[in-house]
């Protein structure tokens, strides 16, 4: 305590001694000598930190006079205070002083006392004060909303003397001086914006003080448009001043002095559609959109029922590709049209089978893609409106912004459609839509001719009767779809070349009472003739659909059925202009409201049975299910089907309803149709591996009833935050209309019981049947019903015993009597019935033919039982406990008739991949065998007729049969295909293609070979360099079918992979293989023919440097294409989970591992290109999964995974992690990855920890990547703004 008091008195004496010296004017050197002597005698160690604090505290700022600063200077010279500590203490005091004087923290709202931040605020404030003072001088300040400046710009607001002036000459002089000062101030503003250092610092203000920057720019634009002084300036013009503040002018990094950035520019230059087309052989502007091609084609998989709207997926992908490719919106929209047109042209004549046909592809082009464009345009225009609102709120309106940027995307949409007319090869309509395209062209021609006709005219005339050629193409259909959604107006009809001419009058008139939409809207009754006409022709407007929907809700029973039939007709399949409304109305009708006068004890849904059945049957086709999936309505559709299944599944079938067609339906029929459709919406029929059996479930295993309801409920929960998202707004409206409350599986107890039984059946051997229970009695009754004609001696065939069930049969009952039980009770008993029948067949008590006939009788009695039969057979096949049976043509059907033919066609299909097809039978003589459950299942399915009535149930059983056969040893699937092709010869192509896919499911090496074929085809590596084609065309080819080249032709590897990957058990290994193939492709590109030949030319060329740049740019173009493909394959194969595993685990392991050292020629180039390839690959994977912005739900997971990866990069740069890869590869990867983040995904940088960004910046500077380091800090937010400012100043000092 005493020591502390002594030290306190000592420093008080120092202050007093200094004060006396100040007053007496003592020489500073003498003061320093005396102070040094005094402190030394007092035992204070010099230099003294305590003295530094005392002196700085004394001087700042109460004693801020020159002599004291001289005292401090001599103290530094005499080393009695630490210099660095004094500077640090002074800098803090200076910062606080500047901030307090100018109120910078209060004005800008930034409290961090970072020197760099203060520099940004200070420079920004100076320029803004000059601006406001200039506006005030010219009387323009009052034109702003605020009318006053936030700065002290008037003399009375400053601490300066003012003098009254009465002399006229002095007044005139001061006026000239003021005008001169105003001009000088404006020119100084221009110099601030032009100067290399200050312009970059102002860029930091623009990024991190956006609200204030917009206000500043508004004032600057006001000055530029109205300043007289600026017009008189010889150094600066109004246009030049505004250009200095444009997006293209104010940038952080203007130079690319570092070598890696110079090389990386070649990648970034792969931007516009025109310039990139000639960069390398084998690529074109089409390759920019390769990921979109793959996503669109993937959506055509009939086994994919997606819970996420294709509109949302494609919109996010388009924004990602636009950012990564750096294209403008004209090229982006043009790429979108070209890609979707390729999708249609790829399958102009699709193969026959239970797969999506042309309707689904046309839905994608003419509905989904149009809605994507509409969402993109609305997003921009809503942002501009909100921006204008915010700006008005702050007291200004950004007129300049509106003039230059408003409707930018809309205008680019128009220009892209005008240019699209040049792509005639893509615009040729498939035969299926030729007449519709011709009508669209005729409509435009009549409008241009000044002739106004209704839709009925086109429903009645033949285009051949038109006096001039009205041949339409796909662009006419696209334009009509855009006009219907207000993206275009009818001025598009006047585009050059859009119509072929004009006419003066119509060929003939239309009957006034012709049935059609026009007469219906005028009040014509909904007769059978009218209904047929409306079913055959799609509605052309929302008003027409709304009238039909109103009839479906409020009309008579017969009118409701007619309205439902109409909605499920051409308006659903071909009503592309209003398709989103059609699917919404159908979905809403699936959940009809409770009538106001309803008083029954049963569900009100029973009264709607006929209408509901018409709707369910009407949308049960493969194409219709895919259309609902593309529009994102699968979750809501499932939610609507569940109560229908619950209600009609509990009804005793003692009632029926007669449809207008005369068909009679029962509760069992309604239930079966609804249940079959519900099961198509989730992957219930997949092998047990999908349900968690095994370490790595494949993609899609989350598609369960609970998950579908969870997604549907999320549409309700997000209703408060969807005003910015047009697609989510649509989904929320549909969900709210059907049920405004969340729905859970517990609301459907019968469905939940069946679902749990289904899960138990898959997980374990069937058990639990207790003798004498209701279920046991139901089992006996069903066995007696389906095997009533079969008897073996004295024992009924139904008296069978297996390890899982026991039934004695009911021989004394009337076997012709069908159980009058609710459907749910029957479904509960079906597994035991099938188990008993299969056991009897295995023991020879039941012949295979009798087994198939009995199961078919069961399925005919209750079609929904087919689902439980599928569930049982799926489980039993996977258990491998049943002996195989010989498909010999006597007991079981034989595939021998065309098995060898199937094998040859499989080889043709896979010819382009280089994959070896295993022989179907060794030596061709071994008998064909199948596991008993699979043999029974295929025998059951081939008993069905291939007609419309059986289609919806075959669509349920078909995929299950394929997955079961694929899960069995080779060659089970070819045998199944051979059996089915004997029944359905027109499905031959489809069945053989399905069989060919199983080659990859049994051999991981074949999958790797397929992936390699994808890279080889896309990059054109297997073709001579001069004639290399590659690209999207080689990857996806012409789809699949025997309509090309006079028979089945090899299928492009991309198509094969898209139809295979969902069934692969192990997806995780794909990432490692794709990375390996990507690096192998880089070596081929760098050391292969094209680049090697061009590098040889450099030795003798006069323009060697120019050719080197072209050659490097061409190589990097192909590298980028390889990265596009690699990222697309990983994302499609495993979605978000696989991408995050890649970034978090696979890539760090790859960089740490030691790889083969490159001793071959060009190894340095290979290493560099490899690093850039991995950088592109990683950013693309992340962008595909997370998006480039924060609009998707997946983006919420981005900060954690991205932060982990950035921490890995920073730690490696810090030397904390030892790397095994080539140093050039690592450097190229880091610089490329950071460059892409800075240039393409700046929002990501804001999510990274500030300390990590600083460490990364430091590491980049050690590589002499100052520009990149600065760019990274510049977009890192307020946390890195200070460091960025310091780096800018430091670079200027070094230069």
TrEMBL record:
Highest taxon, organism lineage: Eukaryota
Q: Which GO terms describe its cellular component?
A: mediator complex
Question: What keywords are assigned to this protein?
Answer: Membrane, Transmembrane, Transmembrane helix
Q: Which GO terms describe its biological process?
A: regulation of phenylpropanoid metabolic process
InterPro entries associated with the record: MED33A/B
This protein's species is: Durio zibethinus (Durian)
What residue ranges are annotated as transmembrane? 1121-1143, 1163-1188, 1268-1289
Name the chain's protein: Mediator of RNA polymerase II transcription subunit 33A isoform X2
């Amino acid at each position: 305590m005493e020591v502390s008091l002594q030290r306190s008195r000592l420093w008080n004496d120092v202050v007093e001694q200094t004060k006396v010296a100040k007053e007496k004017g003592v020489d500073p050197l003498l003061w320093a000598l005396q102070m040094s002597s005094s402190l030394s005698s007092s035992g204070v160690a010099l230099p003294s930190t305590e003295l530094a604090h005392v002196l700085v505290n004394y001087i700042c700022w109460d004693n801020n006079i020159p002599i004291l600063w001289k005292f401090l200077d001599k103290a530094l010279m005499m080393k009695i205070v630490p210099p660095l500590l004094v500077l640090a203490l002074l800098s803090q005091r200076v910062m606080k002083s500047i901030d307090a004087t100018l109120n910078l923290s209060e004005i800008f709202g930034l409290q961090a006392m970072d020197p760099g931040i203060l520099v940004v605020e200070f420079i920004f404030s100076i320029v803004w004060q000059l601006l406001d003072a200039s506006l005030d001088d010219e009387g323009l300040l009052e034109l702003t909303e605020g009318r006053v400046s936030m700065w002290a710009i008037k003399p009375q607001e400053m601490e300066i003397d003012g003098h009254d002036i009465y002399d006229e000459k002095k007044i005139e002089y001061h006026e000239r001086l003021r005008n001169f000062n105003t001009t000088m101030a404006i020119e100084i503003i221009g110099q601030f914006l032009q100067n290399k250092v200050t312009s970059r610092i102002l860029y930091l203000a623009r990024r991190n003080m956006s609200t204030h920057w917009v206000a500043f720019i508004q004032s600057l634009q006001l000055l530029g448009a109205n300043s007289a002084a600026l017009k008189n300036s010889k150094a600066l013009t109004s246009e030049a001043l505004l250009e200095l503040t444009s997006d293209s002018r104010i940038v952080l990094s203007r130079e690319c002095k570092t070598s890696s950035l110079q090389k990386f520019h070649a990648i970034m230059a792969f931007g516009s559609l025109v310039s990139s087309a000639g960069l390398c052989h084998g690529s074109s502007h089409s390759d920019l959109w390769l990921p979109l091609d793959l996503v669109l084609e993937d959506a055509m998989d009939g086994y994919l029922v997606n819970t996420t709207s294709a509109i949302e997926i494609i919109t996010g992908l388009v924004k990602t590709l636009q950012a990564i490719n750096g294209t403008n919106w004209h090229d982006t929209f043009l790429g979108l049209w070209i890609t979707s047109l390729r999708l249609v042209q790829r399958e102009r004549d699709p193969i026959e089978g239970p797969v999506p046909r042309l309707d689904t592809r046309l839905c994608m082009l003419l509905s989904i893609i149009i809605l994507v464009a509409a969402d993109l345009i609305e997003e921009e225009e809503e942002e501009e409106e909100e921006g204008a609102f915010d700006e008005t709120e702050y007291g200004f309106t950004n007129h300049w912004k509106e003039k230059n940027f408003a409707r930018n995307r809309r205008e680019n949409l128009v220009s892209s459609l005008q240019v699209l007319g040049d792509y005639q090869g893509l615009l040729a309509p498939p035969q299926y839509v030729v007449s519709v395209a011709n009508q669209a062209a005729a409509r435009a021609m009549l409008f241009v001719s000044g002739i106004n006709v209704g839709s009925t005219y086109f429903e009645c005339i033949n285009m051949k009767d038109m006096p001039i050629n009205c041949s339409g193409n796909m662009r006419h259909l696209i334009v009509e779809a855009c006009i219907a959604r207000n993206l275009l107006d009818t001025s598009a009809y006047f585009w050059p070349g859009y119509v072929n001419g004009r006419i003066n009058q119509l060929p003939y008139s239309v009957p006034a009472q012709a049935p059609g939409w026009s007469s219906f809207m005028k009040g014509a009754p909904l007769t059978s003739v009218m209904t047929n006409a409306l079913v055959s022709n799609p509605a052309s407007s929302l008003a027409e659909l709304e009238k039909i929907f109103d009839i479906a809700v409020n009309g008579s029973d017969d009118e409701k059925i007619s309205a439902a039939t109409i909605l499920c007709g051409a308006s659903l399949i071909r009503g592309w202009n209003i398709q989103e409304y059609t699917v919404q109305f159908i979905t809403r009708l699936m959940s009809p409201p409770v009538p106001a006068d309803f008083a029954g004890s049963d569900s009100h849904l029973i009264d709607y049975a006929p209408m509901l059945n018409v709707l369910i049957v009407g949308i049960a086709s493969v194409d219709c299910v895919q259309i609902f999936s593309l529009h994102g309505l699968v979750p809501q559709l499932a939610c609507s089907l569940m109560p229908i299944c619950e209600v009609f599944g509990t009804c005793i079938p003692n009632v029926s309803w007669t449809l207008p067609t005369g068909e009679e339906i029962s509760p069992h029929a309604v239930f079966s149709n609804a249940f079959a459709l519900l099961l198509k919406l989730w992957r219930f029929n997949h092998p047990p591996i999908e349900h968690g059996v095994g370490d790595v479930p494949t993609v899609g295993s989350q598609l369960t009833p609970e998950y579908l309801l969870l997604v549907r409920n999320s549409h309700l929960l997000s209703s408060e935050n969807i005003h910015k998202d047009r697609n989510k707004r649509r989904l929320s409206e549909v969900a709210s209309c059907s049920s405004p409350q969340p729905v859970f599986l517990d609301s459907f107890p019968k469905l939940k019981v069946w679902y749990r039984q289904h899960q138990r059946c898959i997980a374990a051997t069937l058990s639990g049947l207790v003798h004498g229970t209701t279920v046991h009695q139901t089992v006996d009754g069903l066995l007696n019903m389906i095997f009533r004609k079969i008897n073996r001696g004295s024992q009924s065939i139904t008296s069978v015993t297996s390890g899982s069930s026991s039934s004695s049969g009911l021989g004394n009952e009337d076997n012709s009597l069908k159980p009058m039980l609710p459907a749910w009770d029957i479904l509960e008993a079906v597994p035991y019935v099938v188990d008993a029948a299969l056991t009897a067949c295995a023991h020879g008590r039941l012949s295979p033919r009798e087994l198939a006939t009995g199961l078919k009788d069961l399925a005919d009695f209750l079609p929904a039982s087919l689902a439980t039969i599928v569930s049982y057979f799926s489980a039993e096949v996977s258990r491998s406990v049943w002996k195989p049976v010989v498909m010999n043509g006597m007991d079981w059907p034989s595939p021998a008739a065309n098995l060898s033919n199937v094998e040859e066609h499989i080889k043709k299909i896979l010819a382009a991949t280089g994959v070896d097809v295993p022989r179907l039978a060794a030596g061709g003589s071994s008998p064909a065998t199948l596991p008993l459950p699979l043999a029974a299942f295929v025998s059951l399915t081939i008993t069905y007729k291939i007609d419309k009535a059986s289609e919806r149930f075959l669509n349920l059983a078909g995929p299950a049969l394929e997955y079961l056969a694929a899960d069995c040893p080779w060659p089970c699937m070819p045998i199944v295909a051979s059996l089915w092709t004997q029944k359905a010869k027109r499905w031959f192509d489809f069945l053989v293609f399905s069989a060919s896919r199983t080659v990859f499911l049994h051999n991981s090496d074949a999958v790797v070979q397929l992936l390699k074929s994808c890279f080889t085809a896309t990059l054109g590596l297997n073709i001579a360099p001069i004639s290399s084609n590659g690209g999207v065309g080689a990857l996806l080819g012409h789809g699949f079918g025997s309509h090309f080249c006079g028979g089945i032709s090899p299928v492009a590897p991309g198509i094969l992979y898209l139809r295979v990957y969902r069934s692969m058990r192990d997806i995780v290994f794909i990432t490692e293989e794709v990375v390996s193939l990507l690096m192998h492709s880089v070596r081929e590109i760098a050391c292969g023919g094209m680049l090697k030949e061009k590098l040889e030319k450099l030795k003798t060329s006069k323009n060697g440097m120019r050719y080197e740049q072209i050659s490097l740019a061409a190589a990097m173009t192909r590298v980028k294409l390889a990265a596009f493909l690699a990222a697309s394959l990983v994302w499609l194969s495993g979605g978000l989970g696989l991408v995050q595993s890649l970034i978090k685990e696979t890539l760090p392991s790859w960089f740490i591992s030691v790889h083969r050292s490159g001793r071959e020629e060009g190894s340095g180039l290979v290493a560099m290109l490899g690093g850039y390839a991995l950088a592109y690959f990683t950013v693309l994977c992340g962008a595909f999964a997370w998006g480039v912005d924060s609009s998707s739900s997946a983006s919420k997971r981005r900060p954690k995974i991205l932060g982990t990866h950035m921490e890995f990069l920073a730690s490696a740069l810090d030397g904390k992690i030892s790397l095994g890869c080539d140093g050039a590869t690592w450097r190229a990867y880091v610089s490329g990855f950071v460059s892409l983040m800075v240039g393409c995904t700046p929002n990501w940088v804001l999510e990274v920890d500030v300390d990590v960004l600083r460490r990364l910046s430091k590491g980049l500077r050690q590589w002499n990547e100052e520009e990149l380091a600065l760019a990274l800090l510049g977009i890192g937010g307020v946390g890195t703004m200070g460091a960025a400012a310091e780096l800018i100043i430091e670079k200027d000092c070094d230069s």
